[in-house]
Amino acid sequence: MSKFSHWQPALGGLTAILLVVPGLVIATNQFADDNLQPWRQTQLSNAELGQQLVQAHFGTGATAPITITVRATNNLTQQRSLQTIDHLTTKLQAVTGVARVISVTQPTGQPLNAFYVKQQLALLNIDLAGKQASAVKLQHQLTADQTSLERAATGHHTKSVDQLSDRINDLANLNDQLTQQLQILTDRDNDSNNINQQLTKLNQLTDQITTALNQVVTAQTTVATEAGHIDQHIHNVNQSLKQTVLPLKTLLASLKNTQTYLSGLATSQVGHSFYLPTNVATNQAYQNSLFTNISSDRRMTQLTVTLKTAPTSASSRQTLQRLQQVTHASLLATPLAHATVLMTGVTPQQSQRHTLISHHAIKWIVLGLAVFSIILWLEWRSLAFSILITAGLVGITLTSWGWTQLILTHWLQTGALSSSVFLSSLALLTLHWLLITATTSQHQNWVHQFNANRLKQHFYYCGQLVWPVTIIEWIYLLPLLFMSAPALKGSALMSLIGISISNLIVPLIFPGWIRWTAEPPALTSILRRLRPSTNH
Questions:
Q1: Is the per-residue pLDDT at 51 higher than 70?
Q2: 150, 161, 145, 163: which is closest to 230 by C-alpha?
Q3: Which of 462, 468, 471, 460 is nearest to 438 (CA)?
């Protein structure tokens, strides 16, 4: 590798970069320091054991939920404010890692169906369907009444006609009797007495006929008058019924269109909106929710978020960050845009502590790297060399951490690693990196007295020196891979990966870098070396 780096410094540096970059891409700032004592991660106190028992009974996140307190300047029991809270509750329930969200609009963690437009429209459609059925029934009754009225009027007219027929029959009988009397009068003798008797009967019959004729005329007049009145009455009633049935048909069509519109509205996005009906005071569940989740001045409410993971885990802290983002985004351009939001609970407290520790850790790491570079600069009298050594240590550490996370966390599913893995491996990798770089790079001598053959021979002897040290480190670290403690297993794996990559990177970079330092190359010569040869 030293010969390859001396022959093609650019390709050697590119190869070293390819060894480091994948691990740098994989590496993430995620630690499983639940109790902030990573060195005692596998040891549980009585309190921690009791906490695990309680969590096993009530649920992982039920014992320490996150409470989101919203303090507004307006009344939170108004329609728009409650709709905003309900929308926020639904959004928080969709966040990964959230088990349940309790709010004033969803006091049991589930929506109250009676307060959503979709359910209210469904009930309204049922009521409209009932009224529509009643209207159809009324239409049928009106039609039946119209038919009955026509039949009744015709029957009354028929009765009058029957009375007229009886009078005519009576008149016909009297006429027959008159004819008989005339016949008797013609056939008998001219006895005056008999004639007088017959004339008397004839006069009586004539009077009866006259009376019958008068009755017939009266009955006929009555029948004609009643028939006229009945026809006019039936005509008026039919016209009135027609005027009544037409608006009724129009009403039925309107009810059908309204029902179709409300059904479509219920399936739209509006159907999922929260809306308080007029009878909200009679709903006991909502009144209890107001008493529990709304302050007495109606300007402060709380949302209780139960997580699926332990409140002190790294995943819970990530869920907390997503909850903060969702809460901020959901309240923008709403009546609660200027409300004060405060998140409390074990997870926010732990998140603040870990954030504080992370900030201090970053400051100390930057300060340590700066001091490390200054010491190297004072030792080797070269700022570029000290920066290269420091950057190499950072790259080796991060890429070995990334590969360790990939193997243990993602492939073997052992869970997130603690910071003790990173810190212990960093100490061993620093010692190994300083050992191999200090023995292979006598920078101030090679700049003034550069010899290519001596450089190759020097790196060969350095490799022979580093090899036994590497074997000793492997003998110490390999048994730790089979330990049950995740911290020891992670430290051993990270150290082995870092040591192996260090032993590959040093001979790939340093010979070429020393050569370029002693004999700075021109850009044309670099391009000529990287260009493929045309000789066959």
A1: no
A2: 150
A3: 462
Q: Maximum CA pair distance of the chain?
A: 193
DSSP annotation of 96 reads: T
Residue 67 φ/ψ, nearest 5 degrees:
-105, 120
Q: What is d(CA 342, CA 244) in angstroms, rounded to the nearest whole number? A: 64
Q: Residue 151: which pLDDT band, with cuts at 50, 70 and 90?
A: low
Q: Considering the entire predicted model, what is its pTM?
A: 0.53
Give the alpha-carbon dihedral of 442, 443, 448, 454, to 10 degrees.
50
Q: What is the pLDDT of residues 171-221, one digit of tens each?
A: 667 666 766 766 665 665 555 566 667 667 766 766 777 777 677 667 767
Q: Which residues contact 61 (CB under 8 A, 6 or more apart)?
A: 99, 306, 307, 308, 309, 310, 311, 316
In one letter, which amino acid is 182? L
Closest CA to 6 of 340, 403, 344, 450: 450
Report the side by side order of strands in the sheet with 300-307.
Answer: 98-102, 300-307, 66-71, 340-344
Which residues are 302's β-sheet partners?
Answer: 69
pLDDT of residue 232: 66
Q: How many CB atoms lie within 10 A of CB 509?
A: 20
What value does the mean pLDDT take over residues 435-443? 74
170 φ/ψ angles, rounded to the nearest 5 degrees: -60, -40
